[in-house]
C-alpha cells in the first residue's frame, strides 16, 4: 500500500529525495486558470505534492500561465489548454476539477447578480466534465455557489453521470474568514482555531457556528453577532476594498487549495479528512446545504450533522432557508430550461 510506504522511513527518504513513487498519480484541472483566482490557485496546486499532473484551462491566456507555473521545481507536470476545442484534453483522466471560471462581483452587486453570465459558463463546463471525466470530484468555486452547484447536479443527472458524493460547492473561504476573525476577537492562536460554517455561500445563508468554535472563548453575545455579520459580509468587504477590480482572489485561491488538498487526501485514503462544503444533503429539508463532510476514496463519505446550536444560530438557520431554497430552485430551473 502506498500509504504505508510513504509513512515508512524508506518512503519518507524517497519522498525527500524527490521520488514521488510512494504517492499515487493524481490529475487536477483548474478551469478558469488564467483568472484572478485561477492563477494563484494554479501556483498553489503546483506546490501540492499530491498532484502529479496539473491541467490549466481557460478561454484565453493559459499558455503563459502554464509556461510560468511549469518552471517551478515541484512534482507535477503542467499543461495549458486554451479554448473549447482543448477542454476535453484538459479534463481527460482528471481526479479533481476545480472551477473558478466566471465573472466576479463589482461593488453594489450581489452574488446572484452573476447568475445570468456564470450559470451558462458552469453548465457548459459541467457538460464537458460529464463527457470527459465523469468520475472526477468537482470543486465549484464560481458564484453564485448556492445556484451553480444545483446547476452542475442537474447537468450530471441529465448526462447520467451524477454521483452526489463527487460534487462540492467550495465554502472554505467562509471557514477561513470565520477562523481569522474569531482568533482576532478571542485573542487565541489562529492556527489552533476551528469554526464550522454551515448553510450556503451568500450573505445570511452563510452561518458560522461560533458556539462550536474552539478553543472556547466565551465571547459576549454582541461579539458573536458582530463576528457572524463580518463573516457573512466578508466577500463584500473585499469587493468594496477592491473598488471595481473584482472580488477575493488570493484568499480564495488559498481556501480552494486547502479544499482540493482535502479532496486529494480523501481519495488517497487518508482517514478523518473533514471540511465544510455545500453538498447534496439531508441535514435540513433543503436538497443542498453546507455542513461538515467527511471525505474519502469516493468523495463525500459522510455528511455530518449540525451539532448543538445556540438560540441565535437556530434563528439564523431558520432565516437563511427561504433565500437558500430559492437560489437552489433557480439553479435547477435554469439547468432544465436551457
Ligand atoms: N466560492 C467562493 O468562495 C468564491 C467564489 N468566487 C467566484 O469565482 C469566480 C471567479 O472569480 P475571479 O477569478 O476573481 O474572476 P476573473 O474574472 O479574474 O477570472 C475568471 C476567469 O474565468 C475565465 N472564463 C470565463 N469563461 C470561461 C469558460 N467558459 N471556461 C473557462 N474559463 C472561463 C475568464 O477568462 C477568466 O480568466 C467568480 O464567479 C467569483 O464570484 C470568488 C471568490 C470566492
Ligand atoms: O464576494 C464575492 O463576490 C466573492 C465571494 O464569494 C467571496 O469572497 O466570498
Automatic annotation (TrEMBL):
User: Which locations, inside or outside the cell, does it occupy?
Assistant: Mitochondrion matrix
Query: What's its top-level EC category?
Result: oxidoreductase
The Lactate/malate dehydrogenase C-terminal domain sits at 171-334
Primary place of residence?
Answer: mitochondrion
Listed under GO biological process in this entry are: malate metabolic process; tricarboxylic acid cycle
Q: Which residues form the active site?
A: 201
Extract the PROSITE patterns matched here: MDH (PS00068)
Tell me yes or no: is Iron among this UniProt entry's keywords: no
Output the Gene Ontology cellular-component terms: cytoplasm; mitochondrial matrix; mitochondrion
Residues reported to bind substrate: 105, 111, 143, 177
| Any Pfam family matching the protein | Ldh_1_C
Tell me where on the tree of life, at the top rank, the source sits: Eukaryota
Binding positions for NAD(+) per the UniProt entry: 32-38, 58, 118, 141-143, 252
Q: Which UniProt keywords apply?
A: Mitochondrion, NAD, Oxidoreductase, Transit peptide, Tricarboxylic acid cycle
CDD domains listed in its UniProt record: MDH_glyoxysomal_mitochondrial
A GO molecular-function annotation: L-malate dehydrogenase (NAD+) activity
EC number of the protein: 1.1.1.37
Q: Which residues form the Lactate/malate dehydrogenase N-terminal domain?
A: 27-169
Q: Which family does it belong to?
A: Belongs to the LDH/MDH superfamily. MDH type 1 family.
Quaternary structure and partners: Homodimer.
Protein name as catalogued: Malate dehydrogenase
Amino acid at each position: 500500500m502506498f500509504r504505508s510506504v510513504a509513512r515508512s522511513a524508506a518512503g519518507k527518504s524517497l519522498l525527500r529525495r524527490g521520488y514521488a513513487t510512494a504517492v499515487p498519480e493524481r490529475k487536477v484541472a483548474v478551469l478558469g486558470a488564467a483568472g484572478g483566482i485561477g492563477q494563484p490557485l494554479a501556483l498553489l496546486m503546483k506546490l501540492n505534492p499530491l498532484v502529479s499532473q496539473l491541467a490549466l484551462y481557460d478561454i484565453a491566456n493559459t499558455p503563459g500561465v502554464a509556461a510560468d507555473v511549469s518552471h517551478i521545481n515541484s512534482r507535477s507536470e503542467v499543461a495549458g489548454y486554451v479554448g473549447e476545442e482543448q477542454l476535453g484534453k484538459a479534463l481527460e483522466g482528471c481526479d479533481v476539477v476545480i472551477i473558478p471560471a466566471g465573472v466576479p462581483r463589482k461593488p453594489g452587486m450581489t452574488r446572484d447578480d452573476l447568475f445570468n453570465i456564470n450559470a451558462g459558463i458552469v453548465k457548459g463546463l459541467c457538460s464537458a466534465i460529464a463527457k470527459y471525466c465523469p468520475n472526477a470530484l468537482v470543486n465549484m468555486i464560481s458564484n453564485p455557489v448556492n445556484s451553480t452547484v444545483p446547476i452542475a447536479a442537474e447537468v450530471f443527472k441529465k448526462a447520467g453521470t451524477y454521483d452526489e458524493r463527487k460534487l462540492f460547492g467550495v465554502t472554505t473561504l467562509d471557514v477561513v474568514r470565520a477562523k481569522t476573525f474569531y482568533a482576532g476577537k478571542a485573542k487565541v492562536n489562529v492556527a489552533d482555531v476551528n469554526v464550522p460554517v454551515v448553510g450556503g455561500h451568500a450573505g445570511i445563508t452563510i452561518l458560522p457556528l461560533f458556539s462550536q468554535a474552539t478553543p472556547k472563548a466565551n465571547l459576549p453575545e454582541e461579539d458573536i453577532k458582530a463576528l457572524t455579520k463580518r463573516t457573512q459580509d466578508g466577500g463584500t468587504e473585499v469587493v468594496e476594498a477592491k473598488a471595481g477590480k473584482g472580488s477575493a482572489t488570493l484568499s480564495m485561491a488559498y481556501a480552494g487549495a486547502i479544499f482540493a488538498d482535502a479532496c486529494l487526501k480523501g481519495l488517497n485514503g487518508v482517514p478523518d479528512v473533514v471540511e465544510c462544503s455545500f453538498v447534496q444533503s439531508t441535514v435540513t429539508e433543503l436538497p443542498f446545504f453546507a455542513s461538515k463532510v467527511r471525505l474519502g476514496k469516493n468523495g463525500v463519505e459522510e455528511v455530518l450533522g449540525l451539532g448543538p446550536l445556540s438560540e441565535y444560530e437556530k434563528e439564523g438557520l431558520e432565516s437563511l432557508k427561504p433565500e437558500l431554497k430559492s437560489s437552489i430552485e433557480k439553479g435547477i430551473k435554469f439547468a432544465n430550461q436551457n
